[in-house]
Amino acid sequence: MSEDRLIDIGPGAAQPTPAPRVGTPRIQRANRAQVEWRAVSGDALLPPEHRARDVWAFVDGLDLTALYNQVQAMEQQPGRAPIDPKILMAIWIMGTLDGIGSARELDRFCNEHTAYQWICGGVSVNAHTISDFRRANVATFRQVLVHSVAVLMHQGLVDLCRVAQDGVRVRASAGAASFRRRPTLEECLKEAKEQVAALHDANEDDATATKRQRAARERAANDRVARISEALRQMPEIEATKEKYRKKGEAVTERNAPRASTTDPDARVMKMPDGGYRPAHNVQFATDTKTQVIVGVSVSNSGTDYGQMPPMVKQVNAEHGKKPNEILIDGGFVSIEDIESVSQSGAKVYAPVKKPKNPALDPHAPKQGDSEAIAEWRTRMGTDEAKEIYKERAASAECVNAKARGHGLTQFLVRGTEQALGVALLAAIAHNVVRALTLSG
Length: 441
Description:
Layout: H1 51-60, H2 65-68, H3 85-97, H4 103-112, H5 114-120, H6 127-136, H7 138-154, E1 162-171, E2 179-180, H8 182-205, H9 211-244, E3 260-261, E4 268-271, E5 277-288, E6 293-300, H10 309-320, E7 326-328, H11 336-344, E8 348-350, H12 372-381, H13 384-406, H14 417-440
Parallel strand pairs: 1-7, 7-8
Antiparallel strand pairs: 1-5, 2-3, 4-5, 5-6
Helix pairs in contact: 1-3, 3-6, 3-14, 4-5, 4-6, 7-14, 8-9
């Protein structure tokens, strides 16, 4: 039998002749000019199990009284009604889950994607409104994060008995070429001020530009003056830090001289996970090890995790009314002073003990001069129980960091530590929404 035929019709059999084609093929073609009337609601366009519904249910349960108190428009009074803060909050949480950190991109999604159109519910939004909401409500995001943890604590899902803390370096909006030495910054500031004065005179004589265009030019020039001035203000701190970590006998050269960014003065050059050095911010997450719920968030421009543990413990206690019983950290956090301070507050610290230079010495044996808290820490980390507990750090903190990067926390599109904190808080809120659904389901 022939290999390319299902039925062998024999070598001498005649092949069937196809019938001649007559006319043009008849197919169903797209007709996008046809006017249609559809009796369908916006709610019916979104599947019942879609994640946008869960996001809206979460936002709908928030207490946003502080945002509603800012509304100036009142019933029976003139004035344009602003957009419901719940809509803007839901847009940002949904966008964070989808890895979108750009207000312009969210604007496009609100016009093109059903889930975002469902959240808007016919309300028109734009990129400026979306961006302004995130910029102005960092404190509100903090309250929302605390609320999300409080609900889970009330349900008995989170107890804060064991918390893991870890930092993640996130690329800043500033470019490496924006970092300048003090003399260059002073020269840049002088030029920027001259540009503001010249632009003011030019705008008065420019009859072709609109009032909005002239205002935008002056606003950009004044913003540059403010950023360079802030960079110069922070130079003493940068110089002191540079001097602190300078090697003994190392001379100050043009290459290693202290520098500040003219576009994001809060950014610092940090060592990134890939081993390279780039402008970044240090985001700290504190995570409940049992549930992987984020219970604390902070952002700093410190290039290391050294000294970040005590402030986080205080933050968790202040926001949730309870200190963690145990806190797990990696070697980058280890500081004798910090461990002693946190231990005296009632929390057990689980952190790796540095290996002594002499391999014959037991790293977990108390040293001469150790305080009671430090001696207990060294002894504790040598037990099998502590080693098993410490394994939870990577399974929770490292996992949370990876998920945050998956939600778009790879580079900040905003400038300044305060605005970077807003982005980090949104990432934590979005993460907790998913965790709450998983824990309650």
